[in-house]
Amino acid sequence: MSTLIYSAITSLDGYVADTNGNFDWAQPDEEVHTFINDMEKPIGTYLYGRKMYETMAVWETMPLHDEPDCMRDFAHIWKAADKIVYSKTLKTVSGPKTQIKINFDAQEIKRLKQIESSDLAIGGPHIAAVAIKAGVVDEYHQFIAPVIIGAGNAWLPNNVHINLELVDEKRFPSGFIYLRYHLAR
Fold it and tell me: Domains in the chain: how many in total?
């Protein structure tokens, strides 16, 4: 059985992007990026909303010959995984191993978690909110950037109560903090 993980880089005040959709403040340094890569290696399938998929699709074609090892490693991890994009408007995808579905189906995700041997990750706060409200997210991985942005795209949905247990944490010299929670037992 696999685990569905919601992971994001957030501001201290819980946003993944500012009111203009910018997230340049969330750029991890090489140490944080390498740590994220290690967390992503067990992922077999990514579940994305359209906006997150379009943001991540650059990893298919980004020239990486002059980039740090951590970026080349992440591109390899991302390309190797399957992707499911939930969108009513997206007609084509930019790379292989990617399929488009119109609607998020929690029962389908429960079945996928039963049959997959690799973990699944969900990315993008809007599709993650649907999954969280449906009760299918098992773990929450938050990378907190040392910045307050005041408003924007919230990491977590409103009006949801879920008891969690902190199972891991790490501080980085850059000021980033990693927190890993799973559902309280």
Answer: 1
Q: Residue 173 above 80 pLDDT?
A: yes
Farthest-apart Cα atoms in the chain, separation = 46
What is the rounded distance in angstroms from the CA atom of residue 157 to the CA atom of residue 42? Answer: 26
Any idea of the CA torsion for 183, 152, 17, 113, to the nearest 10 degrees? 30
Packing angle between helix 30-40 and helix 69-80, nearest 10 degrees? 20
Q: Which domain holds residue 22?
A: 4-162
Give the number of C-alpha atoms closer than 13 A to the C-alpha of residue 43, restricted to the C-beta side. 28
Question: Does a structural domain hold residue 178?
Answer: no
Provide DSSP, 26-81.
G---HHHHHHHHHHHTTEEEEEEEHHHHHHHTHHHH---TTS-HHHHHHHHHHHHS
Q: Would you say residue 180 lies in a domain?
A: no
pTM: 0.93
Instruction: Compute the half-sphere exposure of residue 137: CA atoms within 13 Å on the CB side of its CA.
Output: 30
Residue 72: CATH number of its domain: 3.40.430.10
> CA-CA distance, 41 to 76, in Å (whole number)?
10
Tell me if 52 is assigned to some domain.
yes
- For residue range 30-61, list pLDDT tens digits in order: 999 999 999 999 999 999 998 888 888 888 87
Residue 170 maps to a domain: no
